[in-house]
UniProtKB/TrEMBL annotation:
Signal sequence, renumbered to the chain: none
Domain of life: Bacteria
GO molecular function: mercury ion transmembrane transporter activity
TM segment ranges: 15-45, 51-71, 78-96, 108-127
One cellular component (GO) term of this entry: membrane
Gene source species: Alteromonas australica
Keywords, comma-separated and alphabetical: Membrane, Transmembrane, Transmembrane helix
Name of the protein: MerC domain-containing protein
Family annotation (InterPro entries): Mercury-R_MerC
Length: 136
């Protein structure tokens, strides 16, 4: 593994955790903000689909990169598969659509996907901090 890989994995794991957490905050706080401050309804950044697309544009590449580097370090295939599952779940509201999931379903699915991603990247980050096992 190249020398820069552990540092890059650490940074991309942290970035994926941050971005996934932002998705959760967006999903949970947007309805509250729109009720509290109705004039925010016109702000494009709060548009669920636009926000979701922009976040996925950053979450997917950073997540895949961190998982790939982590896998090359610790060889935990289940962890990589769980991370990919989290990315698929998080992105599913975009391709399943509002008509299929409904507003509440989109929030629930997004929060579940984000929680999976945060959990996987937290484990990946911790495993990345360990020294690799010596080959036998």
């Amino acid at each position: 593994m190249p020398k820069f890989a552990p540092k890059l994995q650490t940074r991309t794991d942290k970035l994926a955790i941050l971005l996934s957490s932002m998705c959760v905050l967006h999903c949970l706080l947007t309805p509250i903000l729109l009720i509290a401050i109705p004039s925010l309804a016109g702000v494009a950044l709060l548009n669920d689909e636009t926000f979701h697309r922009v976040m996925l544009f950053f979450v997917v590449p950073s997540g895949v990169l961190a998982l790939a580097i982590g896998y090359s370090h610790h060889q935990k295939g289940g962890l990589a598969i769980s991370g990919i599952l989290g990315l698929v779940v998080l992105s599913s509201p975009l391709w399943l659509g509002h008509e299929y999931l409904g507003e509440t379903g989109e929030v629930v699915v997004s929060v579940i996907g984000s929680a999976i991603i945060v959990a996987v990247h937290t484990v990946n980050y911790r495993l990345g901090k360990r020294k690799p096992a010596l080959p036998q």
